[in-house]
What we know:
Elements (H helix, E strand, L loop, with lengths): L3 E5 L7 H10 L4 E5 L3 H13 L3 E5 L13 H10 L3 E8 L7 H18 L3 E6 L2 H10 L5 E3 L9 H6 L2 E6 L8 H9 L5 E4 L30 H12 L3 H16 L2
Parallel strand pairs: 1-2, 2-3, 3-4, 4-5, 5-6, 6-7, 7-8
Helix pairs in contact: 8-9
Amino acid sequence: xxxxxxxxxxxxxxxxxxxxxxxxxxxxxxxxxxxxxxxxxxxxxxxxxxxxxxxxxxxxxxxxxxxxxxxxxxxxxxxxxxxxxxxxxxxxxxxxxxxxxxxxxxxxxxxxxxxxxxxxxxxxxxxxxxxxxxxxxxxxxxxxxxxxxxxxxxxxxxxxxxxxxxxxxxxxxxxxxxxxxxxxxxxxxxxxxxxxxxxxxxxxxxxxxxxxxxxxxxxxxxxxxxxxxxxxxxxxxxxxxxxxxxxxxxxxxxxxxx
Length: 258
């Protein structure tokens, strides 16, 4: 059974102690490694060049919009010229100290560049679902992944009609995330993907298969937890894991390429 991680940050320094062993294990057939700013695009590119199963993704995350250089557009275009897709980009009203108008400006440009190139996009959204919906309706949007979808179940159908996919994170297996899980019962099987978001969004501690800790003792979401996330989503959907894995693999290939 082949499993695919639709969204992680394998380049993150927090994963350095486990990265090489994880990659050598071959536990994951493919993954999309997402950059969040100019500062980590080179590390993403190096991982993708060294490992055939890694799809590089480059973008300016909404939390990083105040860090861009004057040449960020040219630098992002150069990365995309070398291969890769677009993300992680998006909109965020949870972080209230981030300039939302600047987020909109940078998000629109990246979305337009992806559409121009015919590339898929990975989108982050927190507490900005109405604004995101408006932007996606402004022009023809490229196929997109709503990573760790936490929006209303009522918006699922509209995002599907706009070409959206939805990835399920292990953090949704926590007992207090029942409302978040409801949305994934409304997502058509042909639009479902699975992610770890490693090193972020850890599973509930009792489901964590690696119990990875940082030097300061904080929990680190090990990317090898992907199998446990698949199992949790399969249980939620009331189907065997192997029955889920086939369609998810097809969705991953359709959105990100084989």
